[in-house]
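Try this one yourself first.
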């Protein structure tokens, strides 16, 4: 199991060498803009990959394989250096720390991202200064790291979430819509996600995420026992929603946005399993996926 990693705000250039946390694949899609506007953006994918591969977001040696990440940046418009885009991020949690295994842990499509991009920018991790491009990436990288750490240690991702929350607060202070403090219940914003992750009332849910991945690790070794344990965890999640959550939860929905296909596959064809009722209650928007899996259909 990973040790708890304490995150610090790196303000000094002379830091002790340590392993990096991320293994990103980066794609930039520019189909929505005219070919003549694409030249300055040609380096974006390589620049982002280089930044995320070499930057370090935690203070201690990262124990275990890097976190696999698929990052897709959709450029929707460009006027001068100002770019409007969307950001899709999928992070994976490895099963039993085995490279090449596992399913999504964070799956987000952020549809409101405006930034400036100049040719060959200098990207650096500066968590006390807001940058419309790098800070959004940093926010999601810290969130992905924190979620991964939560699956190995009890509330192990809190330090990463705390740093992400600081970025969110800086974004709010700069008037960035997706970092605004107020949103409708259940409406996805970056601030809503990180506030729930840092809300003590949701610690029980974070612990259930730990239990779920512990059960997935068990499933890889003993499918029957793992399936029983997963069903128990999902039942506990349903009870948490009934008794602890008064409004729609962004965090709970984000979990099932990442996990619905994985869970459906683990129980596919188990027609009489009680888990299906719990899944319909927890994640009604994906009820059709669960019903097809219950019937054994692909």
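Now uncover the answer:
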């Amino acid at each position: 199991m990973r040790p708890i990693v304490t995150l610090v705000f790196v303000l000094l250039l002379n830091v002790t060498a340590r392993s990096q946390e991320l293994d990103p694949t980066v794609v930039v899609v520019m189909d929505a803009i005219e070919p003549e506007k694409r030249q300055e953006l040609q380096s974006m994918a390589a620049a982002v990959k280089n930044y995320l591969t070499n930057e370090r977001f935690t203070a201690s040696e990262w124990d275990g394989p890097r976190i696999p990440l698929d990052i897709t940046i959709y450029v929707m418009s460009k006027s001068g250096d100002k770019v409007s885009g969307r950001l899709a991020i999928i992070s994976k949690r490895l099963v039993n720390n085995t490279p090449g295994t596992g399913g999504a842990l964070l799956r987000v499509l952020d549809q409101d991202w405006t930034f400036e991009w100049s040719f060959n920018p200098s990207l650096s991790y500066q968590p006390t200064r807001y940058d419309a491009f790098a800070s959004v990436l940093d926010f999601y990288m810290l969130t992905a790291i924190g979620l991964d750490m939560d699956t190995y240690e009890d509330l192990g991702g809190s330090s990463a979430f705390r740093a992400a929350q600081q970025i969110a607060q800086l974004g709010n202070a700069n008037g960035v819509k997706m970092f605004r403090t107020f949103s409708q219940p259940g409406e996805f914003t970056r601030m809503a996600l990180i506030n729930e992750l840092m809300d003590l009332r949701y610690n029980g849910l974070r612990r259930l995420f730990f239990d779920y991945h512990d059960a997935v690790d068990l499933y890889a070794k003993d499918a029957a026992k793992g399936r029983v344990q997963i069903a128990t965890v999902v039942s506990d999640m349903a009870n948490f929603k009934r008794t602890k959550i008064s409004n729609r939860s962004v965090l709970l929905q984000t979990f099932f946005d990442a996990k619905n296909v994985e869970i459906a596959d683990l129980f596919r064809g188990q027609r009489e399993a009680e888990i299906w009722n719990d899944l319909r209650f927890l994640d009604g928007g994906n009820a059709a996926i669960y019903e097809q899996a219950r019937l054994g259909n692909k």
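Discussion: Confidence is low (pLDDT under 50) at residues 3-18. The chain is about 45% helix and 15% strand.
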